[in-house]
Amino acid sequence: MKANKNIIKSALLLAFAAATTTSCQDWLTVYPQSQVVEEQFWEDKNDLEGVRYAAYANMTGSLDKIILWGELRSDNNSLWPTEIMSDNKFINTTTNYKNMMDGHLERDSTNSYFDWARFYTTINLCNKVLQHGQEVLDRDKQFTPSEWRQMRAEMIGLRALNYFYLLRSFKDIPYTTQVINNDTEVRDFPATNQLVVLDSLIADVEAIKGQARNRFEYSGNFTAKQETKSKITNAAIYALLSDMYLWRASLNQGRGLNTKKVFIAQKGDSVTQTVESDYQSCITYADEAMKNLSEQLQNQSSGSFLFTNEMTSYGLPYVNLYKNDFTPFMRSSSPLLPAHSMIFSQGSSDETIFELSFNIYDSRKNDLINAYWGMDNNHYFSTVDNQLDDAYGNGSATKYNDARMWFNSWKDVTTSTTSLAANCCFKWNSVLVDVSNMGTTPNVQKIRVLNATSSYRNWIVYRLSDVMLQKAEALACLNTLNADPAKQADAMRLVHALHRRWFCNDKSSSQPSEDVSSLTASNWGPASLSASTPSNLLGNLPQPTLKSGVNNKLLYEVAVLNERQIEFFAEGKRWFDLVRFAERHAGGSNGTQDPREFSDAMPIGDGREGVNLMISQFFPTLQSGEKESLKTQLKNRYGLYNLIYYMEIKASNGALLQNPVWNKSVYDK
To answer: Region 43-66: what's the mean pLDDT?
Structure first.
């Protein structure tokens, strides 16, 4: 009997790990569906651990959608390959998604890149662990309440992260915290309003903050650091909370809901939300994420190449920013970029908070990075070099002093053996940079790619610079609302800390000062930004340029988003950043009323004001006529979100409604 049970468990775990649902009929289903079989499964801690592992493994299968929905629709990319993957499962024409980005909206809901099944499979695996955890705790005397509390927090955090990807990509989504065992349970399953889902996610994660593990120990083939970085820890939970609060503040602000009372089912009570308190919560939890990362790294940090005393003002003795070494450039034109190699090439770095792990031991390969930003001439995306001008303003040649330009988007890059087309991104490769003729027109003569992107390169979801810039954005937004010089200066200090480590000062034999303590609103303000040489301690700094029609009050928000673009280039974040900006400035009740939004206090506008502002500010490479065409095509906030896979609509018996921008009957009047 024991042997039979072990066989059943093995079969179930294989099914969990291999869950690759692709059709509407099984978007929340995990096979096998037999309830009788499952009742024999949940006996001890190892059973929970197996399904927990399967949830992480399954999420790695969502990477194609994370890249597609968060990066490839954005303004970072221009050329599109004829065929990305040999089995055509991703993008199989030169036009489909390029047209989607440009607003030529002949979108086809039969394309599988709108299929959300993988995310719901991961969610359902988390729900299974959460549903059966208590009964396993009662059965297995070796499984402690403390272990279950930590695992429970981990699974709630992972579930919330997957839902967060969905609501940023599709807006209103089906939402449940219950296990789905068969297809009949998801029929007539409606979409829930984006803000309602986000309220529930925040309440769920608030309830378990601080209850997960700070770090994991050595496990099998992986070091303690690798285990820690590939799991949801307390640092990851706080980073997620910071991110979700930033989004909720932006969504409510753009709807004019600056103060509202909301009933939270998990609490059984109504709570008052304000836009300002949500921005402040973003700041608070960004600090908590950095604090927990510092505690995680105690006695584990690899101290090479770190800035000294960089984060002491935050009381974080064990967390820091990797330092690049530009002094060899001053002597031999060969700057060293350890920050790049430690974060992207080696993986599981001190700065990483959470990453999706790909490894040879269970055959989880990451070929997508190599396909999009790799060495194959037929399989890469051409990046838009001019888009990164905005981090410096007016196309200044100063941008070429930013080492991120050397691997993010460089023209006429060569290797020792191959000449590649212009504007390739080598962020995920191991590179050696040769720099010469730095000056008025800097020139990278050669980027030597030391090796093609590994098939097992990890994908970073959150890292230290992300929470720093989440905090900076929230500070900038509070400054926009209240004209607060102190918050304005705090936001720019965070931007500078990141910007400075990549800046190669070719005009001097030494780098700009690392001390940002004296940076205040008086030496980083509109007057400084408009000057050719900013009056501050740090030399050449980003000088954002506001486009025609953009309110000057948004200067610091734009500065942060420009820094986010160049810092997180090719990391699946840019389109979500643009959507958040557009939603934040959606115009409240202005314009046409949104037929799907609701408010007891006031009508909700359809968001086209924010869409227009986003296009005006962040699409500088488009001609004026193209911008107007794109505004017409995107139309309103729904143009920022994906349409729903046609099979989901077909199977829902009318419970799911298609994105109304693509359903012409709603808005075309």
So the answer is: 93
